[in-house]
Amino acid sequence: MFLEKAYLTSDITRTELPSGLTIITKEIYPAKVACFGVWLKRGSVNERDAERGITHFIEHMLFKRTQKRTLGEISRQINSLGGYLNGATSYNFTNYWVVAPSKYFDIAMDIQTDAVLNPVFDDYDIEKERKVIIEEIKMGEDMPSNYLFDKLMENAYLRHPIKHPIIGYEEILNKIDKNRLQNFYSENYNANNMIITAVGDIKSEEVISAVTDLYKGLKSVKFAETQEEIEPRQTEYRYKEYYADIRKAYLSVGFHIISALHRDIYAVDLLSVILSSGLSSRLNVALKEKKQIVNYINGGIMSGKFPGLFLIEANLEKQSVQDAINEIFIEIDKVKNKAIPAQEIKKSKNLFLSDYIFSQETVEGQAETLGYYEVLGDCMLSEDYPKRVLEVDAKDIQRVANDYLRRENCTVAVYLPK
């Protein structure tokens, strides 16, 4: 039943307005709900050094008030429709979305559009959200896995701005004032920098007409692209330890890989499933079940417009850290030196496909996937990606393991009890 629902969809419709605004629609029946998303093709990597965290700061501000809606009115009106709204900031994009019953979709679109296009940067709101974000930073520092991820990024990347945390730094956030927020908003929130997604129980032509009208005042603006530093090729193993009053040790391992648009990404993704995804993954079986040197181990890939990382993380006892690192490389060497059996590849593909389908169960999930790939350059990759992963064979997996999972291409960060 679930699979039938997941695939009971129409074709994707992509429309680009003369202003440069892109609209992606997908009709899904009988959903009875719909998701409306506004994507900004700018994220934390596009920030200047003196404004690290400003993209996320503005995301917080756009939920507050507009020229015609007072503080709290945006969320109250959406909730009164039986819907909800949220936002997220990533390295390469900022996303705002609302999910509501389809019979109220036109109202939800109007509210969301007002929030994104007509924000008021009120002094009271700015100071309140500054405190909220700084508290989020402190909470993140108190979570060992979050803290260690930031440290891994800081050491894995020497030049590229992805080395900086999306949320920013307290000392910089304290200096961001109203003028800087307004200037950043004006520079970046323009038609040729935005994508609209609408997925669910909708009519594409009606949504396109409504968006054209709602966004008719939004202009295309030329802006100076921030120059992302080219990350130099890593040529030596990097290892860094950190200490705090924690009970267990945390291990984070990262190998540089390619961007999400590179032809190798499909094999790298499947390799990650084989090595570190789920209870039957090679690392979980070897390090947790058989040798019992970790309490938890998992992994995945992080990739987008930029060359990303192949990630492995573990929770373990302090005295087991070096054993765990050694065993991780032993399992990697096995993949490099011996082809993965066909049955294991089939099982991993089934696991990958199952996770992908579950991620597309909701209109929100499908809208997120469409927007993400359109930010990368082509929304149709959302349907092509799983097909390409299913085409990966044993030779592809062995090749990418040898190309990317090299010791000199590896960064390790460890968080240890004092």
Q: How many domains make up the 3D coordinates?
A: 2
- Principal-axis shape equals globular
* Protein structure class: alpha+beta
pLDDT < 50 runs, ≥5 residues: 1-9
Please give the number of β-strands. 11
Helical percent range?
40-55%
- The quaternary structure here is single chain
Strand content: 15-25%
Structure report:
44% of the residues lie in helices and 20% in strands. By secondary structure, it is α+β, with helices and mostly antiparallel strands. It has 2 domains: 208 residues, Metalloenzyme, LuxS/M16 peptidase-like (Cytochrome Bc1 Complex, Chain A, domain 1), CATH 3.30.830; 180 residues, Cytochrome Bc1 Complex, Chain A, domain 1 (2-Layer Sandwich). The protein is globular and about 60 Å long. 40% of the residues are buried. The N terminus is likely disordered.
SSE diagram, text form:
Elements: H1 2-7, E1 9-16, E2 22-28, E3 33-40, H2 54-61, H3 73-80, E4 84-89, E5 94-101, H4 105-117, H5 123-141, H6 144-156, H7 170-173, H8 178-188, E6 194-200, H9 204-214, E7 238-244, E8 249-256, H10 265-276, H11 282-290, E9 296-302, E10 309-316, H12 321-337, H13 342-359, H14 363-376, H15 381-390, H16 394-404, E11 410-417
Parallel strand pairs: 2-6, 7-11
Antiparallel strand pairs: 1-2, 3-5, 3-6, 4-5, 8-10, 8-11, 9-10
Helix pairs in contact: 4-9, 10-15, 10-16, 11-12, 12-16
